[in-house]
Design a protein that fits this description.
The complex is a heterodimer of chains A (789) and B (111). With 789 residues, chain A is mostly helical. Chain A is built from 32 helices and 13 strands. With 111 residues, chain B is of the alpha+beta class. Classes of the chains: A mainly alpha (789), B alpha+beta (111). The interface between A and B is large, with 70 and 49 residues. The structure holds zinc ion (3 copies).
């Protein structure tokens, strides 16, 4: 480059200095600030001037910036004066918003010509590239200046005025909501902090809005409550919460946490503060089924921490106490009548369910509370007590684990509910006055009801035992009202989660009855004896039917005794590897009794038959107890029980057998007590003697003997012990190693469909399994168990 | 009354006459239980009672349990018995009786 050209450039440079350029830049800048019209040429010159100053004047850029700032401040001060000229709040707000909006618009224009300035200033301080999104220096300058002067000076007045307007609106006065919205917008846009654009808004506007709201309701809410009481207050709070939420959506910054914060504040001041006062009304409302009010309460309480759980507790308490009180009030009826008991339970269930539906819209938390409390009512043992023996019996055969532990008991009283449910089921499924009265659909819906209650029964194993006993009776005596319904019931039991092995056994029972029918058919075809026509054999799977009850020997009438080997022979030809055992305490029949009064068909057990047939050889003799024992070979208790049923049958006006000396209980029969057939026996109907007729003396067919009956309840305990053992082994087999807590959880999970094992029982069975080397404790942790193969 | 009863005793000596006029059997429903004729109630392979279906059959059966009586018992020459299902799987691995280790050969099958 030549010397002259450099000199020329230096001269030009002076011309391009800040001092040289500013005088023509300034008027345009002022016009822009005032939003006055600027020509295309002026606008472009400004760009160029900035460019030249930045390029040729080393000191130019900071000078340009500082001078610009002075002008901006000047302008702002003027604007401030214009705003402050207004005393009245609405006018002040209006003026401020007008000035602000003007200024803010210019914030978007004025920085454009100064782009070059940005780069020059930045280039000197830092080499790293500035973020594109970052505010321009000029824009920042403008906003900061506004913030420092006008805003800093009057922000309190602005805020106060805006909040006064909101307050007026809360009190029902109308005004231009744009005023409040405008103030908020200025707060939001003022912020030049790029990391947190809402900082100024949040620290000032939002904080003051929330504070004002809180103060407003801190006075209003207690007033409302003390003036109108809880019920009206709840409506007030609900309405205000909704109102304030809508208002917040209008006045607070959208897409920020503001609305939520405001709502939280309202909930706290309107609801949380009065939580206990509101909740105190809950028990009374539940008691009186005030569903509308409860709905409202739930709506409010659902918004405060720990608001709903006291309501759940109140519901539980109500169901438990009202349910039990209701049962207790009817204790005389329901302890005698399983139908009434079950209907009462169902009635309670419906009542509580309706409450939960109407008051809480079947909210799952309240349904759970209902279930928990209803379970308590169902399993309560104060209404009924079924005492399980403390001592252990020897009732069960063939345990999975061969040796029985001897140290376990579970002697807590239990509800009789499962037994009564099973009885009620029996009344519906058997030919009874009840089942005859009902239509098929009615029976089905009542059975479904039983299953519903059953879900809540803790000791389902007791239900299973009674249900199976009833089913056994119905199938053996052929007294089912509807065999299709019987089989449906089995599937429904499966559906409600009864253990598969149990349900399978029930299904097997129906199958056995069908198989036996075919078997009888085949046998009758090949057996020529005339007696075959009057005999019906059921050969059943011992695994499905028998509950380990011992068999009772009896000397059968000869014609029957002779018949038995023939059946056995026939069976052996059809099957192999099987052995047969006769269960005469379950078998039964019909005999015809002829005397001078008439001719009567009598349904009897085989034991009764054996006793009565003793007179066939000597119809008019008196036979001593001892001789009857010899003739029938029945064990003492069975014979006493059988004789008692023949000489003191409850429903009969005239008994089949007569006895001397007369006695009041079967225990009083002595060796020489004498019995004879009542030849005056006749059926009495409506006070008239009948010549013909049929009576049933079977009553409750024995499924087990007197002795094993005594052991029945013990066998339940025994069975539970085995189930616990099985389950522990099953879990350990799978897990190999498991700690105590986990074991307990899994155990309850496996067994819950049958019964709830007590902690004590679990502990004892663990000890027993350790002692017998099925499992052992871990070397390092005595609370961890290890499976031993 | 006892006397008047005694008067009628002579009426019949033969059994037939008496039974016709006195207690006669009209119908008898006899009940018997069958079980496998085994020494041990429990199948040593699956640990389920032999009267019940084996574990596999129980798991499979569910609904079609009805009509099925397939899960029978099998006796070896050693007289030990197991579910047939269990044993037929066992012998694929080891052709010896799980209880006495004698070579397994079927003596009879349950039916
Ligand atoms: Zn097996
Ligand atoms: Zn099988
Ligand atoms: Zn063997």
């Amino acid at each position: 480059m030549s010397k002259t050209s450099v000199a020329a450039m230096l001269k030009d440079r002076n011309q391009f200095s800040f001092a040289g350029k500013w005088p023509c830049m300034r008027p345009v800048i002022l016009k822009l600030l005032k939003q006055e019209a600027v020509t295309q040429g002026e606008w472009q010159d400004l760009f160029y001037s900035v460019h030249l100053v930045c390029l040729w004047d080393d000191k130019g850029p900071p000078k340009l910036r500082d001078t610009l700032k002075v002008d901006i401040m000047d302008f702002i001060q003027q604007a401030q004066q214009r705003v402050l000229a207004h005393q009245e709040e609405q006018a002040l707000l209006k003026a401020y918003i007008t000035e602000w909006r003007k200024f803010f618009t210019q914030c978007n224009y004025l920085p454009t010509p100064f782009r070059q300035l940005e780069t020059s200033l930045a280039g000197k301080t830092t080499t790293q590239k500035r973020n594109q999104a970052e505010e321009s220096i000029v824009r920042k300058l403008m906003l900061d200046s506004w913030n420092q002067s006008i805003f800093g000076d009057i922000k309190q007045r602005l805020q106060d005025s805006a909040m006064k307007l909101v307050r007026a609106e809360r009190n029902g006065e109308a005004f231009d909501s744009q005023l409040v919205i405008g103030v908020r917008e200025s707060y939001v846009n003022l912020c030049s902090n790029t990391m947190d654009k809402l900082q100024i808004y949040r620290d000032n506007f939002e904080a003051s809005y929330i504070k004002a709201t809180e103060e407003f309701y801190k006075i209003k809410a207690p007033e409302q409550l003390s003036l109108h009481g809880v019920e009206t207050y709840m409506r007030y709070a609900e309405v205000k919460l909704r109102e304030e939420e809508l208002r917040a959506q209008k006045y607070l910054e959208p897409n920020s946490a503001s609305v939520q914060l405001l709502t939280d504040c309202c909930v706290s001041v309107l609801v949380a503060t009065f939580k206990s006062a509101i909740l105190a009304e809950c028990p009374r409302m539940i008691q009186h089924h005030e569903t509308e009010k409860l709905r409202l309460m739930l709506k409010l309480m659902d918004r405060v921490p720990d608001g709903v759980s006291p309501m759940l507790k109140d519901l539980e308490d109500h169901i438990a106490s009202a349910g039990l009180a209701d049962m207790m009030a009817a204790v005389d009826v329901i302890t005698q009548d399983s139908e009434k008991y079950v209907e009462r339970l169902l009635d309670l269930f419906r009542r509580f369910s309706t409450l939960v539906k109407e008051a809480f819209d079947d909210d799952p938390r309240f349904l759970t509370a209902r279930d928990k409390a209803y379970k308590l009512v169902v399993n309560d043992s104060t209404v009924f007590r079924l005492e399980l023996p403390v001592r252990q019996g020897t009732g069960v055969t063939a345990p999975v684990i061969p040796t029985k532990p001897v140290n376990s008991n579970n002697g807590q009283p239990e509800s009789k509910c499962p037994e009564l449910l099973a009885n009620y089921c029996d009344m519906l499924l058997r030919k009874t006055p009840l089942s005859k009265k009902l239509t098929s659909d009615e029976i089905e819906s009542k059975l479904r009801d039983v299953l519903l209650v059953l879900k809540y029964v803790q000791n389902k194993d007791v239900f299973m035992r009674y249900h199976k006993a009833h089913l056994t009776r119905r199938l053996i005596l052929d007294t089912s009202a509807d065999s299709e319904k019987e089989e449906n019931m089995v599937e429904w039991l499966r559906e409600v989660g009864m253990p598969a092995d149990y349900v399978n056994k029930l299904a097997r029972m129906f199958q056995d009855v069908k198989i036996s029918q075919d078997l009888n058919q085949q046998f009758k075809e090949q057996c020529r004896a005339t007696i075959a026509d009057s005999i019906n054999i059921k050969i059943l799977n011992a695994g499905a039917w028998a509950r380990g009850s011992e068999r009772v020997t009896v000397s059968l009438p000869l014609q029957l005794e002779d018949y038995i080997p023939e059946v056995e022979e026939f069976y052996k030809k059809k099957h192999s590897g099987r052995k047969l055992q006769w269960y005469h305490h379950m078998s039964n029949g019909t005999i015809t009794f002829c005397n001078k009064m008439g001719r009567f068909d009598v349904d009897v057990t085989t034991f009764q038959m054996a006793v009565l047939f003793a007179w066939n050889q000597r119809p008019f003799e008196k036979i001593s107890y001892e001789n009857l024992r010899l003739a029938t070979e029945l064990p003492d208790t069975e014979l006493r029980r059988t004789l008692w049923s023949l000489c003191a049958f409850p429903k009969l006006r005239r008994q089949l057998l007569l006895v001397e000396p007369s006695t009041y209980s079967p225990k009083e029969f002595a060796h020489d007590t004498r019995f004879w057939v009542n030849h005056e026996f006749a059926i009495v109907k409506n006070g008239k003697l009948q010549k013909r007729g049929k009576i049933n003396l079977i009553g409750r067919l024995q499924l087990s003997t007197e002795r094993s009956k005594e052991e029945d309840n013990q066998s339940i305990v025994q069975l539970r012990i085995l189930r616990v053992q099985e389950a522990i082994i099953k879990i350990l087999k799978m897990r190999k190693t498991i700690n105590n807590a986990q074991l307990q959880t899994e155990l309850v999970d496996i067994l819950k469909n049958m019964f709830l094992p007590s902690k004590k029982m679990i502990k004892e069975q663990i000890e027993w399994l350790i002692e017998h080397k099925y499992i052992r404790r871990h070397e390092d942790d005595i609370n961890t168990f290890v499976y031993m193969a | 009354m006892a006397e008047s009863v005694q008067d009628n005793v002579e009426r019949g000596d033969g059994d037939n006459v008496k039974t016709e006029n006195f207690f006669t059997l009209k119908k008898w429903n006899a009940v018997a239980m069958w079980s496998w004729d085994v020494e041990c109630d429990t199948c040593a392979i699956c640990r389920v009672q032999v009267m019940d279906a084996c574990l596999r059959c129980q798991a499979e059966s569910k609904k079609d349990f009805y009509g099925k009586q397939d899960c029978v018992v099998v006796w070896g020459e050693c007289n030990h018995s197991f579910h047939y299902c269990c044993m037929s799987l066992w012998v694929k691995q080891n052709n010896r009786c799980p209880l006495c280790q004698q070579e397994w050969s079927i003596q009879r099958m349950g039916k």
